[in-house]
Every structure is written in structure tokens, then in C-alpha cells.
Design goal:
- The complex is a heterodimer.
- By secondary structure, chain A is an alpha/beta fold.
- Helix content of chain A is 32%, strand content 20%.
- Chain A has one domain (16-305): Aldolase class I (TIM Barrel).
- Chain A contains nine helices and 17 strands.
- In chain A, the strands form four sheets. An eight-stranded parallel beta barrel of chain A has the order 3-5-8-9-10-11-16-17, surrounded by seven helices. In chain A, strands 6-7-15-12 form a four-stranded antiparallel sheet, with no helix packed on it.
- In chain A, helix 5 (194-204) crosses helix 6 (242-256).
- The longest helix of chain A has 16 residues, at 93-108.
- Chain A starts with 15 loop residues before the first strand and ends with a helix.
- Chain B folds into two domains: 13-103, Beta Barrel (Elongation Factor Tu (Ef-tu), domain 3); 115-263, Rossmann fold, CATH 3.40.50.
- Chain B has helices at residues 83-91, 124-134, 181-188, 204-217, and strands spanning 13-24, 29-36, 47-52, 62-65, 68-70, 73-79, 96-103, 115-120, 140-145, 160-164, 176-178, 197-201, 221-224, 240-242, 249-251, 258-260.
- In chain B, a hairpin with a 4-residue loop joins strand 1 and strand 2 (29-36).
- The radius of gyration of chain B is 18 Å and the shape is globular.
- The chains are: A alpha/beta, B alpha/beta.
- Strand 4 (44-45) of chain A pairs parallel with strand 1 (13-24) of chain B.
- Bound molecules: flavin-adenine dinucleotide and flavin mononucleotide (FMN).
- Flavin-adenine dinucleotide is lined by residues 47, 62-65, 76-79, 81-85, 122, 125, 226-229, 252, 257 of chain B.
């Protein structure tokens, strides 16, 4: 059992107040790494338990206005200290998400944050409006995370999320329809000053920001000299990201004081504590959740058990 | 004919364990026996996501078909092809592992129609497991290798017909057909032979040829596909294969790995990544 360090500025074991919502915990799963929060419910361990035990929220796979078929395979490539992905935002689209997935999450009592992406600010407003209408009574729907940073789509994507003014307009468009839900803007690390983006999100009305999305990375197959991913570059995630993500979270907290949900390379309670140390209010588990469906639940359990 | 999430396949668990035994079973294939913390069961065609635990863990587990289970002992066959499989080979007895098992849709149990089993390379274990569980004399079992020495003959009883692209003699007195495994099947089942249901597992060219044979004859065909996997349990959409009927994708790990050959878009399969 880890002892909680006495330097912690707050007790991370309790619920989290973020904007208008109270989340049941501070250990979440990251978007794209735990599907829509539906798969995995039937998985167990020798000690019993569920991958959902103790989670503060599942951030669902990003959905877009229309369903997307995603990028051609191969979509994943493991590197020495991380992984490259080029999923291409394959998703079921907002309508199916709202009609078919939200009711199941709600019925199962899974606390969730819906991740949304679009290519224009008005579309973010439209997505938020449609979701708010369809899920108005959903008690376990805590909030929305705007994915302003996916590196794997040709249109929109990173470039779009690099411009503070656009970030502000996207957040403002969504905010209008999301009274009563927490609103987070997920930021790209592939930019000079991430704090400027965070400040822009706050001006647009975000309750906080999520940092970071994947770095841009690539690998080369030495047998052919060709990139391993058909689209050449992809999103780099996993253990190698932790120091980068910590630095970005630290930058945002130091320069803006905004609530930050930290993500990047978290696999253990010790990793999560480092994010809390620099001021993150919650932490998401991404790549580690893919390799072990019980990763986030194990971090949450270790945190709950810490004295 | 659809592979189904078989009601008798137990839900998957993430189990800890150790490497109990690791031995070469042919010139290129190795057998790995795991000792897990609880008894395990599976249906032939299902797989596990295996990773080393602790310092030697890989970012992602690796998918391996299940060969046999007995109590807490789980057996696999594998080939060293890269970093992960090399690390498994070198880990040594006693090395701690984690194993998410059993995963995916299995090959269904047979009906009265005879089966034609077509196995190549690391596609052998699920069909060896199928033959052990459900095989009958009327089923035709074919296993193919490169030179024949790469076939784990100790695991392929006399009921198996063998083929090799470049046969290196007839060790053990077993006849080895010169050619690939689908050519072997064609030689044994010429046009007009009774209908068989094809079960195929191996590299993409084998699956493609198997699906082609079945299509030509109007037979049903089930194939087990291999794709790079991230999670193995359906959440990351990394291991996709082209689905027939629209331009979308199915996941190898959750919708498969066993598919009705007609459910896949063979024209897009394996090709588009090169673009
Ligand atoms: C459902 C399923 C069942 C499998 N069953 C077995 C089995 O029983 N025995 C066995 O030896 N292998 C099996 N494989 C393949 C096995 O997972 C890969 O060989 C392994 O992941 C390679 O890991 P590596 O780190 O050694 O290779 P890497 O360094 O990752 O790659 C080396 C080479 O292997 C290829 N490769 C990597 N991953 C896969 C993959 N998932 N499928 C196909 N090719 C791949 C790459 O294209 C590359 O050429 C199975 C794959 C799947 C999807
Ligand atoms: C396979 C995969 C798919 C992802 N999909 C999404 C997504 O749809 N939306 C999103 O905001 N982030 C997505 N991400 C990024 C993660 O949510 C996370 O920000 C990033 O991977 C860093 O965290 P990690 O190191 O814990 O994985 C994805 C990451 C991976 C590996």
C-alpha cells in the first residue's frame, strides 16, 4: 500500500467538483482507449472485480457529426517506449452514440464524459445541442470533452486546435448548450504555448482543460524504408509521454491556474500522484488501459487504499 | 454460417501467472506453457493477450491462439518474429506474465457436414485444438509449412496431411506434398468432391486461397484473421479488417478473429495499407 505523500495540496481520494458537476472520483479512462465504456463489462480477474470499479469517469471514444470509417490498417505500431496510432477517429457518429450508447451507460450507472469532435465551431455547438437534447435526463453523464487535437484526421485536427481564437469559439459554441454539465477542452501538445490554448478555452467558458492528446510521431520499417503507418505520421502515446504531459500540465497550471485533467503515460498510482503534485485535479489512463482493462481500476483502488 | 460468441465460451479474465515451460517443437515453432492463477477454459479459435509482467512488460500484450488448457495450465504455439516474441522466448521459466483470456469468437462446433481444415504457420494451434476437440474421421486436416521441418510433427498426428513449399525429404516417414496447403487440399478434393466446410487459419495468402477455393465450389468457409492488436478486447479499434457490404471495418479481436469468409471484403484486404 502506498502512503499518500504529505506534500499533496488536496486529498485526491474524494469526489471531484468540476464546474457544475461532482465526479465520483479522480481516476478516469482516456478517450479512445476504453471504447464507449461498453466493452470490458464482462471481464474479470481472479479476485473478482470489474474494470469499472472506482472510476471517476469513462471518457468515451470521440464522436463526430457523422459516423467515420477510420483509417486503413495497420493502425497501431508499438515502439520501444510507447505506441503510434492512426485510428482516424473511427466512430459511430453522434446519433448512434446518443440513441444507443448513452442509454446503456446510463442504465449501467457508468459515470461518463462524452468526447466530441468537429471541424467548425458551429458544428461543436450543434453536437452539444443534439447530445444535450437526447441525454437531457442522463444522471451519469457528467460532461463533455471537446477533442480539439486529434492528429489523425486530414480535415480539422491539430492545426485547427492550435489556434487560440478557434479554440475559444468552439468552446463557446458548445458551452451554450451544456448548462449543468462540466465542459473540458482537450488540447494538443504539438504547439509552442499550450497555456495560451488553455486560456482561450477558459474565455470560451470551459470548466477546465484536458492535457495532453498524443504527440505526433512516426517510425520507419527498415526492410522497406517506408513509414510503418500508411498515413506516415500518427499519434504517439504511452509511457514515453509521461514527462511531456507533466510538463504541459505544469505549464498550464502555473500560467493560468485552470483546473487540468492530466493524461499521458499514466499506468500506476505513482504516475497519477505526479500529476496531482503539479496541480492536476484528475488523471486519465489511456494506453495502459488498452494493455490491461483493469489498469485504471487498479490505480483507483490503490488510491482509495492509500493511507 | 456465422461464427458466434459461443455460449459455452466463458467470459474473459485477466489472470496473472508464470511461464512454466518453453520448448522448440519444430525448426521455427515453439511451445509455451503458462501456469495461471486460476483454471482456464476456451473454445478452439479463441486467443489470449499475453504480456510479460513487471520491468519486461511490453506496451501492448501480444495475441496468441490457444492450443490447449488443462487446469491452470495454458499452452500456446508461437514463432519468434520480432521484439515481443523474442522477449517471450528469452524470459525463461518462472517469468511472471499477465494473460487476458479467452478472447474472440471461436470456430463453431461441427454439424454433419465434413470439415476441411487448412492450417499454415502460426495458424496451426486453433485448428489443432479444433481437431482434438471436435475432429472426426470424415474431416480432412491439412497443415502447411515452408520446408516441412517447420511443422510441429509431434502435434500433428497421422490424421494430418502435410504440405511444404520446398519439402526437405520425408523425415519420420511422413509423406509431404510439395506445394501450399490449399494446393494439397485441391489434390485431395478434386472438382466434384463432396462439399466440405472450410476452416482456415494462417497468413493472408492462405486465407485468400482458402476463401477462393470455397467460393469456387460453393462451400461455406470460416477464416481466422491475424492483425496487429492493441487491446484485444474491442476498445481501441486498432486491429481492423475490411468488412464486406460497406466500406467499413470489423475488429479482428471482438468481431473475429473467426469470420465467415463472405463477411470480409477480400479486394480491400491487405492491400490498402500499402498506399
Ligand atoms: C488472433 C491472433 C492469433 C494469433 N495467434 C498466434 C499464435 O498462435 N502463434 C504465433 O506465433 N503468433 C500468433 N499471432 C501473431 C502474433 O500475435 C504476432 O506474431 C506477434 O504479435 C508478433 O509480436 P512481435 O513483437 O514479436 O513482433 P513485431 O516486432 O510486432 O512484428 C514483427 C513482424 O510480425 C508481424 N506481426 C506483428 N503483429 C502481428 C499480428 N498480430 N498478426 C500478424 N502479424 C503480425 C509484423 O507485421 C512484423 O512483420 C496471432 C495473431 C492474432 C491476431
Ligand atoms: C488508440 C488510441 C486512440 C485514441 N483515440 C482518441 C480519441 O478518439 N479522442 C481523444 O481525444 N484522444 C484519443 N486518444 C488519445 C488519448 O486519449 C490520450 O490523450 C493519449 O493517448 C495520451 O495518454 P496515454 O499515454 O495514457 O495513452 C487515443 C489514443 C490512443 C492510443
Amino acid at each position: 500500500m502506498t502512503k499518500l505523500p504529505d506534500w499533496l495540496a488536496f486529498d485526491p481520494r474524494g469526489p471531484l467538483r468540476l464546474g457544475p458537476r461532482t465526479f465520483p472520483g479522480r481516476i478516469w479512462t482516456a478517450s479512445g482507449c476504453f471504447g464507449y465504456g461498453l466493452d470490458g463489462a464482462d471481464l474479470g480477474t481472479a479476485g473478482g472485480g470489474s474494470p469499472f470499479d472506482g472510476l471517476g469517469a469513462v471518457v468515451t471514444k470521440t464522436v463526430t457529426p457523422q459516423a467515420r470509417r477510420g483509417n486503413p490498417p495497420p493502425r497501431l505500431w508499438e515502439t520501444a517506449h510507447g505506441a503510434l496510432n492512426s485510428i482516424g477517429l473511427e466512430n459511430v457518429g453522434l446519433a448512434r452514440f446518443a440513441d444507443e450508447i448513452v442509454p446503456v451507460l446510463e442504465a449501467r450507472g457508468v459515470p461518463f464524459v462524452a468526447s466530441l469532435a468537429a471541424t467548425r465551431p458551429e458544428e461543436f455547438g450543434d453536437l452539444a445541442r443534439r447530445l444535450a437534447a437526447a441525454a437531457a435526463g442522463a444522471a451519469h453523464w457528467h460532461g463533455v470533452e471537446l477533442n480539439l487535437s486529434c492528429p489523425n484526421v486530414a480535415e480539422g485536427g491539430v492545426d485547427f486546435g492550435r489556434d487560440p481564437e478557434t479554440v475559444e469559439r468552439c468552446v463557446a459554441a458548445a458551452r451554450e448548450h451544456l448548462a449543468g454539465r462540466a465542459l473540458l477542452a482537450k488540447l494538443t501538445p504539438n504547439v509552442g504555448s499550450i497555456a495560451r490554448l488553455a486560456a482561450a478555452a477558459a474565455r470560451g467558458g470551459a470548466d477546465g482543460v484536458t492535457a495532453i492528446n498524443t504527440l505526433i510521431g512516426m517510425d520507419v520499417d527498415l526492410r522497406t524504408g517506408e513509414p510503418v503507418l500508411p498515413r506516415r505520421r500518427g499519434g504517439y502515446s504511452g509511457p514515453a509521454l509521461l514527462p511531456v504531459a507533466l510538463a504541459r500540465v505544469d505549464e498550464i497550471v502555473q500560467e493560468t491556474g485552470l483546473p487540468v485533467v492530466g493524461v499521458g503515460g499514466v499506468a500506476t498510482l505513482e504516475d497519477a500522484l505526479k500529476f496531482f503534485a503539479v496541480g492536476a485535479v484528475a488523471v486519465q489512463v489511456g494506453t495502459a488501459q488498452m494493455s490491461d482493462p483493469f489498469a485504471a481500476a487498479a490505480v483507483a483502488a490503490a488510491l482509495a487504499a492509500a493511507g | 454460417m456465422n461464427p458466434s460468441a459461443d455460449a459455452t465460451a466463458p467470459p474473459a479474465r485477466r489472470l496473472r501467472g508464470t511461464i512454466a515451460d518453453e520448448t522448440a517443437v519444430s525448426s521455427s515453432m515453439r511451445r509455451l506453457d503458462l501456469e495461471l492463477e486460476e483454471p482456464v477454459a476456451f473454445q478452439p479459435g479463441q486467443f489470449c493477450m499475453l504480456n510479460l509482467a513487471g520491468e519486461r512488460a511490453l506496451v501492448f500484450g501480444r495475441p496468441f491462439s490457444l492450443l490447449a488448457a488443462s487446469g491452470r495450465r495454458l499452452s500456446l504455439l508461437y514463432k519468434v518474429v520480432g521484439r515481443g516474441t523474442a522477449r517471450l522466448r528469452d524470459a525463461g521459466a518462472g517469468a511472471p506474465v499477465t494473460c487476458l483470456t479467452p478472447l474472440g469468437r471461436p470456430f463453431p462446433a461441427p454439424d454433419e457436414r465434413p470439415r476441411l481444415l487448412l492450417a499454415g504457420g502460426v495458424g496451426l494451434p486453433p485448428l489443432i485444438a479444433w481437431a482434438e476437440r471436435w475432429g472426426r474421421p470424415r474431416d480432412l486436416r491439412c497443415a502447411g509449412g515452408r520446408d516441412g521441418d517447420d511443422l510441429p510433427r509431434g502435434l500433428l498426428g497421422p490424421g494430418w496431411r502435410l504440405s511444404a513449399d520446398r519439402p526437405a525429404g520425408e523425415p519420420g516417414g511422413r509423406a509431404v506434398f510439395a506445394g501450399n496447403v490449399v494446393e494439397l487440399a485441391r489434390s485431395l478434393l478434386p472438382a466434384g468432391a463432396p462439399a466440405h466446410v472450410v476452416l482456415a487459419c494462417g497468413p493472408l495468402p492462405l486465407l485468400r486461397a482458402a476463401a477462393g477455393l470455397a467460393d469456387e465450389r460453393g462451400w461455406d468457409c470460416l477464416v481466422s484473421v491475424e492483425e496487429r492488436m492493441g487491446c484485444g478486447y474491442g476498445v481501441c479499434r486498432g486491429c481492423v479488417v475490411p468488412r464486406a457490404g460497406d466500406d467499413g471495418y470489423a475488429t479482428a479481436c471482438k468481431d473475429g478473429p473467426v469470420f465467415d469468409a463472405r463477411a470480409l471484403d477480400w479486394a480491400r484486404f491487405g492491400g490498402e495499407g500499402a498506399a
